[in-house]
Amino acid sequence: MQAGISSRQLGLEMTESSLIPNVRIAMEVLGSLRRLGVSLLMDDFGTGYSSLNNLHSFPFDVLKIDRSFVSRMTDGDQPLQIVRTIIELARVMGMDVVAEGIETCQQYRLLREMRCRYGQGYLFSRPLTAEAVTKLLRLPGRVLPDPEISELVYA
């Protein structure tokens, strides 16, 4: 690739609704990308056009749980069970899961208990420039928050 990375290092995020206007062409393009080794991520799962038929038909590798579900999962049993079901659905389909919008240690703990291995959100970091990410990745030792130690406070 021209960017100097392998296609296996590249992930392409898309919403299901971006594929709906022409499903046939989308299937061909996604199939070609996957054969090249590009990882395909369905973004904002559970909102908009979400269809179990499309989830089964498109060759996604990763399902990203929309932040609206993550933010409500501590509001009661039903929102929590929805997140649990999405994680289990992805697992059954052989997909990884990324939880979006993790902002509290409680959300992080619950997701870990449900064996959600990947997450993103303000709990880990506010948006960073490319330069700041490069510096962060070069830090020695643990750079992610440990919710077992304490709640994070942002200035």
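That was protein one. Protein two is written in the same sequence-then-structure order:
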Amino acid sequence: MDVPARAIQDARMRSLLPVALAVLLPHLAIAQSVSLQDNALQDWTRLKDTMMKIAAAMPEDKFGYRATPPERTWGEQLLHVAEANIVQMGRLGSTVAPPAYDMKETSPAAIKHTLEASFDFGIAALKEQTDQSMLAQAASTRFDRFMGASTKARVVYYVIGHTWDIYGQMVVYLRLNGITPPASQRF
């Protein structure tokens, strides 16, 4: 390459540098501002939306439905999720009082309210956290036999995983009743 051509190429590269930086720097700033607490809050909030939709998908007269005799009823599945949410998210040490719940509840409206309240409690508990506090040890409960000593972050993702497991079971309940789960519906 001759000297004038090289100079032109260098000038073009120098003129592209500010454009490249203007495009890339915002993305680098975003990548550096990832937050454990914020990610957990986003995941929890999306899970609430998913679970409230599946809870609403089953007709209220089917809340007593169970796929096989030894399994929980639809309503009991929802209460099971709510109890796990309240107990496990309570391990984060929130200043917000956990909602009251009754595992013998049979009213569909009350069961859905309990489920929603359990997720709202989790949202409140997560909003009190910081990235640093999410790495601290969670409080102990009688349910520690499932996990042992854990960070608050591990507790959050444990209960999220648990809820997805129950969600999978609930999909079967819906399908056995001829109902397409909300997440599988095509609009």
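The helical segments are 3-32, 36-57, 74-90, 108-127, 131-134, 152-176. Keep this in mind for the problem set.
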